[in-house]
Specification:
By secondary structure, the protein is of the alpha/beta class. Helix content is 30%, strand content 19%. It has a domain at 472-516. The chain contains 15 helices and 21 strands. Strand 14 (365-370) and strand 15 form a beta hairpin. The radius of gyration is 25 Å and the shape is globular. The protein starts with 8 loop residues before the first strand and ends in an 8-residue tail after the last helix.
């Protein structure tokens, strides 16, 4: 089994996350990449096993107008910084793939600059598509050329030119040798030359047998790109759209239909699933009902394909396109500002489950129940149920044996071949069969998003006892839970929902941060 078949990805846009200037001053390197080192532990804590980070190489502005493929962007640091960063990720068991922008370059790339300076005498005329020395453009170059997306800032490379192909393949070989990367995300793969992608696949497989190639493809039949000759996977924009609209419109048929339509890709050609990324609005912004964050992410982690989480979305960060700008989608964040978050705890729980239950990656997908507002399916012997309605939902499925809800700890026993399950409004659950698994410490988020009745079978636990005179750092999880309850009580009445939220939080660091968030040591 290749590492990427069971991966959980984390996605970082480094120029945004580190707060780099929008335009490159081309000055001395500023070692902003080193500020991301604390994020490696955070990524690991979420159960993520791979990182997609980029763009990273010298560019004019947003990173996709490359000026030097072999030098880390001076706004981020140096090649030594990137080499050290990848090594730290590997120490934590996190694979690293980089953005590869091979469809186009910036106008300051050496080959394009040579054409501007030497025109018909330039040896690089064949490096770009559609160079017309009798044309012109808004830069008054005295020639025209093909570009990407109508932007002459992005000059389209001629990937059928042998010299270009050799240069880019040699660049990738250098990245593997210098940085020990594990794969690439190919920008604008939907317009890349297929022969080039086949050559890249053959070369990287020879250099590093488990090297992963994932391509940005928005429209079309994904099997054209994701196959044994070209790429291992493509971005699943079809599911991305279905995830938010299927909840906003209360239409689970859209999601189920998308999954069925993609089934012909097979297990060898995995899809790269995501709820948001650096080019689209944040999922928390897209959702009309924020409580749908829970069922959306339950589906992201359990439907066929490889899940990916965009930085900050584990904290419910919002971001929308404004006046054509992507700036708010790519913010600078300080990790310490988001120490405790119910969104984060949910994502961490799903990450642990994905790593623990191989059926969520490899189990056969079988649809079990589908309406506009409820959706249930099997992944192997695991059952997934989601509900987009603002009221509790019941599921009646064909199954045998005992099942336990991994997120809530609820129990259910099949009778006469039928399994009756219930979840709350805007809820989601992953039901594990009772075939030897241990449920004494269920994996679950700190906060139940739905303000709902408890699912039938949910077992109430006795409130923990408070530890008097003991330092917070020395307290057990149970003692920290008691301390939180005591401080909540000092602020006002403690409701049953509040007690459940405390009982559900079994993460020591989260509880420590919760206790420290109160203004006074023992009272409000």
């Amino acid at each position: 089994m290749a590492w990427y078949e069971n991966a959980v990805f984390y996605h970082i846009y480094p120029l945004g996350l580190t707060g780099a200037p929008e335009q490159n001053p081309y000055g001395e390197p500023v070692h902003r990449l080193n500020t991301l080192l604390p994020w490696v532990d955070h990524i690991h804590s979420l159960g993520c096993t791979a990182l997609y980070i980029g763009p990273l190489f010298e560019s004019v502005g947003h990173g996709y107008e490359t000026t030097d493929y072999r030098k880390v962007d001076s706004r981020l640091g140096t090649n030594d910084d990137l080499r050290a960063f990848v090594a730290v990720c590997h120490e934590k068991g996190i694979r690293v793939i980089l953005d590869a922008v091979f469809n186009h370059t910036g106008r300051d790339f050496f080959a394009f600059r040579d054409i501007r300076e030497n025109r018909e005498r330039s040896p690089y005329l064949d490096w770009y598509r559609g160079v017309n020395l009798g044309g012109n453009n808004e830069y008054n170059d005295g020639f025209s050329y093909e570009n990407w997306g109508g932007y002459n800032l992005l000059a389209k490379l001629n990937l059928r030119c042998g010299a270009v192909r050799d240069y880019l393949l040699d660049t990738v070989k250098g990245w593997i040798g210098e940085f020990d990367i594990d794969g690439l995300r190919l920008d604008a793969a939907d317009v890349l030359d297929f022969d080039f992608m086949r050559a890249l696949r053959a070369a990287t497989s020879a250099w590093k047998p488990d090297f992963y190639l994932m391509g940005e493809v928005i429209h079309g039949e994904y099997g054209r790109w994701a196959n044994d000759q070209t790429l291992h996977a493509v971005t699943n924009y079809h599911l991305h759209k279905a995830l938010y609209s299927g909840h906003n419109d209360h239409n689970y048929f859209e999601i189920a239909h998308t999954v069925k339509r993609q089934a012909d890709l097979g297990r060898e050609n995995r899809l790269y699933n995501f709820a948001d990324n650096h080019d689209v609005e944040r999922i928390f912004t897209r959702l009309r009902n924020k409580a749908h964050y829970l069922p959306v992410h339950v589906l992201l982690y359990t439907l066929p394909g490889v899940p990916s989480l965009y930085y900050g979305s584990e904290f419910g960060v919002e971001g929308r396109k404004e006046r054509g700008s992507d700036a708010s989608l790519r913010p600078c964040l300080r990790l310490e500002d988001y120490a405790a978050s119910p969104c984060r705890d949910l994502i961490a729980a799903l990450g642990v489950l994905r790593g623990r239950e191989s059926a969520l990656a490899f189990g056969e997908y079988r649809e079990a129940q589908l309406t506009t507002e409820q959706y249930a399916f099997f992944r192997g012997d695991v059952i997934v149920t989601v509900n987009n309605a603002d009221r509790p939902a019941a599921f009646d499925l064909q199954a045998d044996g005992v099942y336990a809800g991994a997120l809530t700890g609820a129990r259910a026993q099949a009778e006469n071949g039928r399994l009756h399950l219930e979840i709350g409004p805007c809820g989601g659950e992953i039901w594990l069969p009772g075939n030897g698994r241990t449920y004494a410490e269920p994996v679950r988020p700190a906060v139940q998003w739905q303000a709902a009745e408890e699912p039938k079978g949910m077992q109430q636990t006795a409130e923990p006892r408070r530890a008097e005179g003991k330092a917070l750092e020395d307290m057990t999880v149970e003692e920290l839970q008691a301390e939180v309850l005591a401080r909540l009580a000092a602020c006002g009445p403690v409701t049953d929902r509040m007690r459940r939220e405390v009982a559900d939080n079994v993460y020591r660091d989260s509880l420590l941060n919760w206790v420290r968030s109160f203004r006074c040591p023992r009272s409000c």
